[in-house]
Design brief:
By secondary structure, the protein is mainly α. A two-stranded antiparallel sheet has the order 1-2. Strand 1 and strand 2 form a beta hairpin.
Length: about 80
């Protein structure tokens, strides 16, 4: 993790963000997974896999907006 930017990992020159355990737990419900499916255009299986693997696809703008709305967390609390 980059010490200057919490929530920022650099792998092979590519910046990756990951959700905090608190955010992952909060979004792992059927209703919120459905909202993420609609926003990201993917299946429930894919969203479940994203949550399980803490995929950086969950940090796309559309997903982050939903996560902010349902958790009330600030970005620095959502990201690790």
């Amino acid at each position: 993790m980059n010490a200057k930017s919490p929530g920022l990992n650099t792998i092979g020159g590519r910046k990756e963000f990951k959700l905090s355990p608190q955010a992952l737990k909060a979004i792992n419900t059927p209703v919120i997974r459905r909202r993420l499916m609609d926003a990201l255009g993917c299946t429930e299986f894919t969203i479940s896999r994203y949550i399980q693997k803490n995929s950086d696809n969950l940090t796309k703008a559309a997903a982050m907006q939903i996560i902010r709305e349902v958790t009330g967390l600030a970005d620095d609390e959502m990201l690790e």
